[in-house]
């Protein structure tokens, strides 16, 4: 599957319409971003069940700001519309494969329960 450019217009439909989406936040002037691009492309060919999307932080400042991207490259993975991985820096091909394997193995029922519990704790802490 080819890597797609993610924009403000395509962001929501991409996240809601796919089980696993991995986003690479990058910029044209970023050396490490350019070095990582071939690894990201190759992984997109190996993992056809995953949507690989690139977010140009220079052009899509709204998306980058919404996720508080402070360092590039940053990888972020959504599974069933929940962020399950976010990390700045470059991963090797093996590390990327390993992370995607772990994302596939997640018990999403447990993840949703954990997210709900954290939200309730935040609400209680905010109301105290």
What would you say about this model in short?
The protein has 128 residues and is α/β, with parallel strands linked by helices.
Any overview of this molecule?
- The chain is built from five helices and five strands; from the N terminus they run βαβαβαββαα.
- It is an alpha/beta fold.
- It has a five-stranded mixed sheet with strand order 1-3-2-4-5.
- It starts with a strand and ends with a helix.
Descriptive labels:
single chain; 128 residues; alpha/beta; 5-stranded mixed sheet; 50% helix; globular
Topology:
Blueprint: E1 4-5, H1 8-16, E2 20-26, H2 31-46, E3 50-56, H3 61-66, E4 74-79, E5 82-88, H4 93-105, H5 108-127
Parallel strand pairs: 1-3, 2-3
Antiparallel strand pairs: 2-4, 4-5
